[in-house]
Design a protein that fits this description.
Largest sheet: 6 strands, antiparallel
Distance between the termini: 108 Å
Structural class: alpha+beta
Strand content: 15-25%
Helix content: 40-55%
Strand order of the largest sheet: 2-1-3-4-5-6
Radius of gyration: 23 Å
Length: 262
């Protein structure tokens, strides 16, 4: 066969492409389950870090199998809601059947388009409620998990991550524990616009729903601020109602005299 003609080149190239494609498909099939398991364990670590189940360092020192068990031992209920605030699905919580909504980009698009969203709600023992947030940073997506106290208004903890923010600047949303700790004890002001503020000198106002942005990371801070408010708005009809009734109960307890006063 003449190895210098075009027919030989086309046939040879086609064979090489087919072989390489077959090898890549085989490797992907073999590695896929392990990659999925790692991704699930990572999501669970982030959620449980926000909920304060264990310190973040301990969670990342724990193997995947033990992370699954830890989640199963501490989760009370997990389900999904739509933008109308109504429950539209259940999520498995047993160790061998843990179900998550960890593909947040499609849900972010659905929220912004007002379409059919499937938004997860994770309720841990003790009543803490964990919800995700997702948005665009400077170089790629930013996301995280917010844990709310049982009143569905007070922030109990937070965890944030990113795909490619600048080390030492935007990457601080993940790398610096002090940034996450700023959120603890702050409140989500359901019904307000914005429900939460992450911006320069925000804390100087004394607002309970404000945290200072990271100095030198303007675009990352703006992206995370938008992500928080877009997703808080999406959960408002469900969790905001819980916060409203909690405030009513507080008001009633403050205005009702006790037996000694009577």
């Amino acid at each position: 066969m003449n190895t210098n003609n075009n027919v030989y080149t086309v046939i040879y190239t086609s064979i090489v492409v087919v072989i390489v494609a077959a090898v890549l498909a085989f490797v992907a099939a073999k590695l896929g389950p392990a990659q999925d398991a790692n991704a699930k364990a990572e999501t669970l670590r982030q959620m449980m870090s926000a909920a304060g189940i264990k310190p973040t360092e301990e969670l990342y020192a724990t193997g995947n199998a033990d992370i699954l068990q830890l989640y199963a031992d501490n989760i009370e209920e997990a389900y999904t809601i739509g933008l109308d605030g109504e429950k539209n699905g259940e999520l498995g919580t047993a160790k061998d059947n843990i179900q998550l909504v960890d593909k947040l980009k499609p849900q972010n698009k659905a929220i912004k388009a007002g379409g059919e969203a499937t938004l997860p709600v994770y309720i841990f023992k003790g009543g803490k409620v964990v919800i995700p947030v997702y948005g665009a940073g400077l170089w790629g997506p930013v996301w995280g998990y917010i844990a709310l106290e049982p009143d569905c208004r007070t922030i109990a903890g937070a965890y944030f991550d990113h795909e490619g923010e600048t080390p030492g600047l935007g990457a601080k949303i993940k790398d610096e524990p002090w940034f996450r700790e700023k959120f603890v004890g702050k409140t989500v002001e359901w019904g307000d616009t914005p429900a939460f503020r992450l911006e320069k000198n925000a804390e100087a106002t004394g607002a309970a729903n404000a945290v200072d942005a990271i100095s030198g990371a303007t675009m990352t801070s703006k992206g995370l601020n938008e992500a928080l408010n877009v997703w808080f708005k999406a959960y408002e009809k469900s969790l905001g109602i819980g916060a409203f009734f909690h405030m009513l109960e507080e008001h009633a307890s403050e205005t009702t005299p006790n037996a000694e006063e009577e």
